[in-house]
Design a protein that fits this description.
Blueprint: E1 6-15, E2 18-29, E3 32-36, E4 42-47, E5 52-54, E6 63-68, E7 71-76, H1 92-103
Antiparallel strand pairs: 1-2, 1-7, 2-3, 3-4, 5-6, 6-7
Length: about 110
């Protein structure tokens, strides 16, 4: 299996008003976006070309939404990118850029 193009752990994943996991994982690898629970179980996945990722204009920093298979998920990632060379959670902006880059839509 190839190295993931993007991975973020400790992500809060919700659907509507319901929280599905508070420490999930978002991973882009092998042309698919996968949403995983903290235990590694798959919540949902889709080819990255079919995913629409955005940042709602009213959402605070670190929030993004992802539409997979007709379902909108809310994602709470890190608020700011870590400093170069530092460990830390990628921001929502980096997630959106990674989806666009992996799907060939630029970024």
């Amino acid at each position: 299996m190839a190295e993931p193009e993007f991975t973020a752990t400790g992500v809060r994943i919700g659907k509507g008003l319901r929280s599905l996991t508070r420490a999930g994982e978002v991973r882009i690898s092998d042309g698919r976006l996968r949403l995983l629970t903290s235990y590694g179980s798959e919540i949902d996945s889709a080819p990255v070309q079919a995913v629409r990722a955005s940042k709602p204009w009213f959402a605070p920093e670190g929030r993004a939404s992802a539409d997979l298979n007709g379902t909108r998920y809310s994602l709470t990632l890190g608020g700011h990118d870590p400093a170069p060379g530092q460990q830390g959670q990628p921001s929502a902006r980096r997630f959106i850029e990674a989806v666009r880059r992996a799907s060939g839509r630029g970024g």
